[in-house]
Amino acid sequence: MGTARGVSSLVLLPAKEYEWKLKGRHVIEVPLTGKISQLLTQHELEVGTSIPGEDDFMIFSEGVFQLTELVRVLFAGAQYPALEEDECFNVVALETDENVIRVHGEIIKLVGV
User: Fold this and answer.
1) What pLDDT, on a 0 to 100 scale, did the predictor assign at position 54?
2) What pLDDT is recorded for position 101?
């Protein structure tokens, strides 16, 4: 298989026991549908950064969550969590209503394997 460059959506780690330190719990709320360009008008992206894909987005449709769309919207809306190299955002629940998705999660730091 070839290589790709970008930010992953949901990543599963090898099935073994890890040791984590909880750094904080967060709820991030984003619209289920809309335009990336409208989210980008609220802030500036770093030079050389772009949001790939179509301008229109739809995170949840016909019972399916598009996780790559969720990541695009988090970046476009400047809501992607600020993480250190040894931290990750552990998604623990997704909650939706008619217009928004709430991503419940926690920032955790790898302490040991």
Assistant:
1) 87
2) 95
Cβ-Cβ contacts under 8 Å for 82 (sequence gap 6 or more)? none
The answer to whether the CB of 23 falls within 8 A of the CB of 107 is yes
Structurally, the chain folds into a number of domains equal to: 1
Please spell the DSSP secondary structure of 46-92, one letter per residue: PTT----S-SEEESEETTEE-HHHHHHHHHHTT-SPP--TTEEEEEE
Which of 1-5, 15-19, 79-83 shows the lowest mean pLDDT across its residues? 1-5
10-27 core/surface letters (b: 16 or more CB in 10 A; e: else): eeeeeeeeeeeeebeeee
User: Residue 14 domain-assigned?
Assistant: no
Q: Answer whether residue 34 is part of any domain.
A: yes
Boundaries of domain holding 95: 19-43+53-112
Query: Does residue 6 lie in a domain region?
Result: no
Is there a domain that residue 90 lies in? Answer: yes
Q: How far is CA 25 from CA 2, 21, 73, 76, 83, in A?
A: 36, 12, 20, 22, 13
